[in-house]
Amino acid sequence: MAAPSDVPAGRPAARTTKIAIVGAGAVGSTLAFAALTRGSARTIALHDVNSAKVEAEVLDLRHGLMFTSQAHVIGSDDVAVCADADVVVVTAGAKQKPGQTRLDLAEGTIGLMRQILPGLVEVAPDATYLMVTNPVDVVTYAALQISGLPRERLFGSGTVLDSSRLRAVLAERCGVAVANVHAYIAGEHGDSEIALWSSASIGGVPLLDWEPLAGYPPIDAEVRAQVHREVVDSAYRIIAGKGATNYAVGLAATRIIEAVLKDEGRVMPVSSLLDGYHGIGDVCLSVPSLVDRRGVTSSVPVPMSDDELAGLRASADSVRGVLRRFRF
Hints:
By secondary structure, the protein is an alpha/beta fold. 39% of the residues lie in helices and 19% in strands. The chain has two domains: 18-156, NAD(P)-binding Rossmann-like Domain (Rossmann fold, 3-Layer(aba) Sandwich), CATH 3.40.50; 160-325, L-2-Hydroxyisocaproate Dehydrogenase, Chain A, domain 2 (Alpha-Beta Complex), CATH 3.90.110.10. The protein has helices spanning 26-38, 51-62, 106-123, 136-147, 160-174, 221-242, 247-261, 306-325, and strands at residues 18-22, 43-47, 72-76, 87-90, 128-131, 154-156, 181-182, 185-186, 194-195, 201-202, 205-206, 266-268, 271-277, 280-286, 289-292, 295-299.
């Protein structure tokens, strides 16, 4: 299927925002739907090697345009559909199977990045690139080496989703709205990730000083360990039940995209190449970072306990171990 023009016939060309989503599977198509309903960009482009799938997804999305903000939805199996995108989101990759860790996915996905990234950079050389494919930290590091893009303009969705899961669980346990909970998951987007309890807060109160509301248990060390385990295991539970995670990750990625397109300067735990963060470097990990139109501009050195810092370093070692298997 040939790539259609972004500009309808008879209309003058105008500078508008464009998101290109690579991969029209469960995550990519859900991300497109989330971006469309939130009005994230004027043009949403889907790219997938399966022409019938991408054509069907685009048609389905277009049929809902009456109920969304004005947008232009296009799609193709030709990479040219991604041309001149402001943000390119890569969701294509091997599908995670029940019982399979994210790191088990690395080999096939890195091979795919070698195939698709050069063509993407050729048609969208000035875009910001967001990697959503798992294992996202390993894939992000590999993608930086393969693409040659600067670290600011290529980064991963990291633990933005995990942090949302953490906040949702804490809100339920504490009897407050999710919006009142501020807490981050850092490190690998996977089994070695850590919760940053030292900087967590509820309604401005440090989590470690939180006095439980009537009818709710204290958030002591035992409960915090349970919450952390629930967050780490949640993806496995979802995959076991329905085969893939798609809704929350689609929303999380869309929120990252908006931080870029709207130049928000929002602090988010995305996965980027660290350089001396608490002494950690030469690895892509998630830490609270500033995200704006330029991409990831800086990492925020939030306070950490000795245990948290040790956990972050162990997580870095875990990701580096996988990268060494693939000679990065």
